[in-house]
Amino acid sequence: MNPHDSPKQEWKADNYARNAHFVPTLGAPVLQLLAPRPGERILDLGCGDGVLTEKIAAAGATVIGVDAAPDMIAAARARGLDARVGDGGRLEFAAEFDAVFSNAALHWMKSDPDAAIGGVKRALKPGGRFVAEMGGHGCVAAITVAIVAALERRGVANAAAGIPWYFPTVDDYRARLEGAGFTVDYIELIPRPTPLPTAMAGWLEIFGQPCFNRLPPGDRPAAIAEVTAALKPVLCDEQGRWTGDYIRLRFKARVPDQPK
Ligand code: BEZ
């Protein structure tokens, strides 16, 4: 899930569970890539309500979750997890984790991705691994174009610059990881058309919030309706089932062992 560090985004656990429960469900492959082992100490960066954190703990690891959203952290704690409110983009741990895991969080750390990666690097022990999945280049491109058009039609200048998500290419993110001192063992862009259980309205309600909050409240319903209508021919099938145009960036990187 997400670090939820966008200032205009208010994350509520009940809303997330209703509209976005598919996010942790579809995180199973990245959990498999993490392969947590009993006794390991693992940080879940952007743990949200702790659905995946709980699975890491169930594998026998000691896991700490961090997320910027107090309501999501309260939900994670209600599962009995060690979860803490914190800025995922500027972690302050020092050489204490065997692994840092992150699902669907890093794309919210748009303002300074290198600071986020640097915080992960510092948090890891020598030999520690960073295993994550985030939105990758081209993710939700159709949705983004429709939102930008609706905002600009309502007078928001350069609306694209205010889109809160960062969806890097493989080359971009690999260079950032290597620049921070990681060795990249695996990195791949994965197209993943994603069924939206509560349709486009539910998706926009939760993920589009920081975009539509740039409009006066009275303008928001019409803008949301316009985006939904524009996307219907592209992302909605004849049975009324919506599919998001998701592309994931999945990677596994590690901190080199200390020279002997
Ligand atoms: C996600 O959480 O995976 C996501 C959020 C916003 C836009 C696209 C993807």
Helix content: 25-40%
CATH topology of the domain at 13-138 and 165-194 and 246-254: Rossmann fold
What number is the mean pLDDT? 94
Ligand inventory: benzoic acid
> Which shape, going by the Cα principal axes?
globular
Walk me through the topology.
Elements lengths: L12 H7 L2 H4 L2 H7 L6 E5 L5 H8 L3 E6 L2 H9 L3 E4 L11 E7 L9 H11 E12 L5 H13 L16 H10 L3 E9 L2 E2 L3 H9 L1 H4 L7 H16 L7 E2 L2 E8 L6
Helix pairs in contact: 1-9, 7-11
Bound molecules: benzoic acid.
Structure description:
- The chain is α/β, with parallel strands linked by helices.
- The protein has a domain of 165 residues: 3-Layer(aba) Sandwich (Rossmann fold), CATH 3.40.50.
- It is 38% helix and 21% strand.
- The termini are far apart.
- The N terminus is likely disordered.
- Bound molecules: benzoic acid.
- Benzoic acid binds next to loops.
Offer a few descriptive terms:
260 residues, alpha/beta, Rossmann fold, 7-stranded mixed β-sheet, two-stranded antiparallel sheet, 11 helices, 21% strand, disordered N terminus, binds benzoic acid
